[in-house]
Amino acid sequence: MSTTNPNIAKGLEGIVFTESKLTFINGTEGILTHLGIPIQEWAEKSTFEELSFALLQARLPKADELAAFDAQLKANREIPGELLDIIAAYPKGIHPMQALRTAVSHLGLFDPQAEEITAEARYAIGVRMIAQFATIIAALGRTQEGKEPIAPRQDLTHAGNFLYMLNGTEPTPEQARLFDMALILHADHSMNASTFTAIATASTLSDMYSAITSAIGSLKGPLHGGANEAVMDMLDEIGTVENAVPYITAKLDNKEKIMGVGHRVYKFFDPRSRVLRDYAAKVAEQQGKSHYYQILETIEQAVVERLSSKGIYPNVDFYSGVVYSDLGIKKEYFTPIFALARISGWVASVNEYTANNRLLRPTAEYIGPVDQHYVDIQNR
C-alpha cells in the first residue's frame, strides 16, 4: 500500500482541531499576539502576572483584579515540606526536565483538589501551579548543587522572586525586569507540541496534574525545548567574534543545522527574538557582558544573508540562552525555565479547550498487509 497519501498531514501540520481566543500567529509576517495585542506591547508594558491573568480569563484585568491575582500567586508560592524532602533526595546529575516532570507529579499527591476536573478546580489548581513552578525549579537547581532551598519572598515579583530563590541574592530591578520579559515572551505560543499534549491528556477528562506532567514530557524533547542550551554550546565552540563567520559558513556549506535558527511556524523573524535581542543587549552592555551578543549578531547577519530567501531566520531561542546565562541560570536549566513561563499557556489552553471538551481521537491510515491468517509458531 502507498505511504505517500497527500491527504495525510505529517506532524498534523496545517490541521485545525479547535478554536482559541488566546494566541494568534502569522508566521509569514512574523506576527504574534495574545488577545489581539502584539507581543511587543505585552513585553514593553505588561508583566508575567498580568499576562497570566489575561490568558486564564481571556481578557485584560482591572487594577483591583490584577492586585488580587498577584496576591493569590504570592500566597501559593510555598510547596509542601515533604516535596522539598523528595526533591532533595533525587539522584544528583539527573536531567532537570526529568526532575521537574517527577516533582510536578509528586506535587499532585499533596493537593486534596488534584482529582477534581470542574472548571473551577482546574482554574484554582492552575493558579497554584503557576506560582509553585518557580519554587520547584529553584529548589531543583539548588539541591542538585548540594545547596539548601530558599523559601519564597512575598515582596518580590514572580520573576524577581524566582531569581532570588535560585541564586540566593536579590536581583537588581533591571535583572528582574529582563527575566519578567523573557517569561512573557515564552508564556504561550498557540498549539505547540507541549500545549497540544496537555490538551490531549485533559480531553480524556484526566486531571490537571496529569495534563501538565504530559506537557513537561513533551517539552523535554530537543525538537521542542532545549534549543537555547544548544545555542550556548555553539557560542562556546565558536569562542570569538572573528570565528563566527567561518564557523557558520562551514556549517551552511555542509547543510548542517544552526542552533536557534529556523522555526516550524515563522518564515520571517520571530517577533519574540527581536524584543529579547534589543532589550537584553542593553542590559548586557551595562553589565560588561556583551561578548556573546557580538557573536550572535555576527551569526544573525550571516544567516540572514544566506537563508532569508528560504524563510529561515533566528527564533526566540537564539537570544534567550544568553539572557538566562547573564542572569545566573545554568544552561541545563534553560528548558525548565521554558516550562516556568509556558505553564500559564498550558493551563489557559487546557481550561479553554475543556470548557467545550471533545476527546481527541485522530486516525491513522493503515498501510500494513491484508488478507493474512494466523500461522502456528512451529510453521513460521
UniProtKB/TrEMBL annotation:
Any one GO biological process: tricarboxylic acid cycle
GO cellular component: cytosol
Source species of the chain: Deinobacterium chartae
Signal sequence interval, chain numbering: none
GO molecular function, one term: citrate synthase activity
Stated family: Belongs to the citrate synthase family.
Active-site annotation: 263, 317
Pathway terms, separated by semicolons: Carbohydrate metabolism; tricarboxylic acid cycle
PANTHER family: CITRATE SYNTHASE, CITRATE SYNTHASE, PEROXISOMAL
Annotated catalysed reactions: oxaloacetate + acetyl-CoA + H2O = citrate + CoA + H(+)
Protein name, entry field: Citrate synthase
Pfam families: Citrate_synt
Annotated InterPro entries: 2-MeCitrate/Citrate_synth_II, Citrate_synth-like_lrg_a-sub, Citrate_synth-like_sm_a-sub, Citrate_synthase, Citrate_synthase_AS, Citrate_synthase_bac-typ, Citrate_synthase_sf
Alphabetical UniProt keywords: Acyltransferase, Transferase, Tricarboxylic acid cycle
UniProt keyword annotation of Aminoacyl-tRNA synthetase present: no
